[in-house]
Amino acid sequence: MGMNADLICDAQLLIGMISQRLVPTLCPSCRIPWEKRAPELSDDET
Fold this sequence. Notes:
Helix content: 25-40%
Shape: elongated
Number of helices: 3
Radius of gyration: 19 Å
Order of helices and strands: HHH
Strand content: under 5%
């Protein structure tokens, strides 16, 4: 396949591939624009 054997056998790469998840997407009617929400957040929430 033309791939480096060390790369294929890398444990961190395998863990990353197995635990890969899709980023959740909010529907347009459920999401809140950042400009509206940002002023309400504290410093540790941003």
